[in-house]
Amino acid sequence: MKKSYLSLKNLSRRPGRTAALVLLTAFIAFSVLGGSIVVSSLRRGLNSLEDRLGADIIVLPSSAQSKVSFEKLFLQGTTGAFYMDASVLDEVLDTPGVAAAAPQTFLASLKADCCSVKIQVIGIDPEKDFTVQPWIQESYARDIGEMEVAVGCSVEAGVGEIIRIYDERCRAVARLAPTGTGLDTAVYCTMDTMNTLLQAAESKGISHKITSDGDRQISAVYVKAQEGADIDQLNSYLNGHIRKVTAVRTRSMITQVSDSLAGVTRTVRILIAAVWALAVIILLIVFAMMTAERRREFAVLRLIGMSRRALSRMLLTESLLCSAMGALIGAVLAVALVLPFTALIESSLGLPYLTPDWKTILGYALGALLLTVLIGAASSAFAAWKLSHADPGGALREGS
Amino acid sequence: MTLKAENVSKQYFRKTGQANVFFAVQDVSINLAPGQLTVITGRSGSGKTTLLHMLSGLLSPSEGKVYLDDTDLYALNDADLSRLRNCSLCVIPQARSAVETLTALENVLLPGMLYGKQDKTADALHWLEALGIGHLQNACPAALSGGELRRMAIARALTQGGDILLADEPTGDLDDENTALVLSALRAAADAGKAVLLVTHEKDALDYADQMYQMNAGHIAGYCSKEG
User: Is the pTM of this model over 0.80?
Assistant: First the structure.
């Protein structure tokens, strides 16, 4: 019979008390790990959005704002189709303070027989593009060719599969890394392919033409300002000097998201703190009750020669075993319940949400395990100290 | 080994009449020699159990010293005193003293387990049988009666094997037959060379004793020995 045997017996022969301790610590681990994953996913989503937008200003047709909310377009993947004359790109490029400008053309496919899926198609100019192209090249080193598309990670089409868009067959050549934003639900093609698709859409009776020159239609111009340029001033200049367009600072868009994210993050953190505080208080009460309940048992152990240190160690062993078991259960539950519901969390929050990779999650899980075990041990430390310094004689006389 | 208390007192702060200090034990000296069974009797509240706790290293005296041979018990640190309690001072406490999560046999073996001593299962089974509860070795304390628990505690102290045996009302809730059984076991322990102290109200215990102290209001009020 070893000393640890005594701890194990104490736990196994008092299943109610053990289960309560395990459950409490599981609750702490679950809230810490689940909350950390959610907060980290939101932060990564925002960073990803910043990286992917990659521009200081986006110039859109003035009519676009009435058709779709920019936030919904970029964050939730709502499809949008709005156009302006491609000459806007030249006007933007001629504006003082502009370092680079890249056009994009949007087309929404239909939920109909002519299209495999309802998605947002985004045409880019690979030579000018500085926002999407670097992202595509992370997954696909070559250039996207005629009637080829790179698909966002949430699009249900694998590499090599054919996607029908207005009865035109496009081959998926790359699957892009997740961004946690609406960009994940789009497919990307060259401007040439986009023009083919626009004509195909027109042949189906869906006309997006705003000019007689079908080849020269774009939906947005992404603008990078020159180093040191006053971006607000540039934004105002674009709004004032180019007709029928709206220039939007991406930072204002990101700031809105960032503000919402800060609010959600704060709420999650407050909830975690509240759960912690509550759990620690309950743990302290449980250990205090246990102290009272087990006074006589500990007095007997002191009587037969167990030292204060050994007694404290026995109590801490019991609490560590319970905490470790609870932490493990809580961590497994957090991973099992939070990760499969990523899409649901993302849509209900309406914020960019990018789940960390497994290594980061493993790091969080280990952190949560360690923290929970420490909280369990720390909560029992006072009880252990108090018990080991109690008068065993007094406890033995109680009820005699 | 000889256990000796020299002028020990134990005072508590509590309002008693006009004084704020209450002496549970006052200026008591006692000598427990090997091979002797010493009985302490006295009315409830006379300080018997307090004295026994001071002798067993559980309760530090307010004044005076307790020696095991030449070792001042209360000059030792907790680890050394605990080890000494485990090896030399075996106590049968007055009240229920089982670890509820262990079986009767595990409870009896518990002192030996604490410092990784040799396996004493054979001794434990012998004492459980001798005290009439061998058939209950695998029972949990919750399933034992008060008398059976008391005998389990006695078996534990006897299996522990120290040179000093301190028993606090060990026959408190036993019938005549089991009382005789326990008193005989304690006498046998003294005859085997242990110093045995028996705190009791049991009049029959005097027949087994080598010396007897009478306590009253914290003082030794009387003493007699077989030798006269």
Answer: no
Domain count, chain A: 2
Residue A194 resides in a domain: yes
Helix (H) or strand (E) holding A99: strand A98-108
Residue ranges making up the domain that contains A40: 3-48+257-397
Residue of B nearest to A388 (CA): B78
Residue A381 is assigned to a structural domain of this protein: yes
Q: State the angle between helix axes of A3-12 and A308-338 in degrees (0 to 180), rounded to the nearest 10.
A: 50
Q: How far away is chain A from the Cα of B89, in angstroms, using its nearest Cα?
A: 8
Residues A223 and A367 in one domain: no
In a domain, A147, yes or no: yes
Residues A105 and A197 in one domain: yes
- pLDDT per residue over B103-112, tens digit each? 999 999 999 8
B86 interfaces chain A, CB cutoff of 8 Å: yes
Nearest alpha-carbon partner for B183 in B159, B160, B151, B152: B151
The predicted complex's ipTM stands at 0.90
pLDDT tens for residues A105-136? Answer: 888 877 666 677 778 889 999 888 888 888 78
Q: Tens of pLDDT along A248-295? A: 888 777 666 777 777 887 888 888 888 878 878 888 888 888 777 888
Neighboring chain B residues of A6 at a CB cutoff of 8 Å: 99, 101-102, 110, 113
Retrieve residue A130's tokens: 């500085």
Nearest to A303 among B78, B97, B109 (CB): B97
CB contact under 8 A, A1 and B95: no
Sort B217 into a burial class: Cβ within 10 Å, 0-12 / 13-18 / 19+: middle
**Mean pLDDT, chain A, whole residue set:** 83
Give the chain B residue whose CA is nearest to the CA of A309.
B79
Strand, coil or helix: A60:
strand
Whether residues A115 and A206 share a domain: the answer is yes
> CA A123, CA A188: separation in Å to the nearest integer?
6
Out of B50, B101, B111, closest to residue A304 by CB: B111
Q: Which residue, of A218, A243, A268, is where some domain finishes?
A: A243
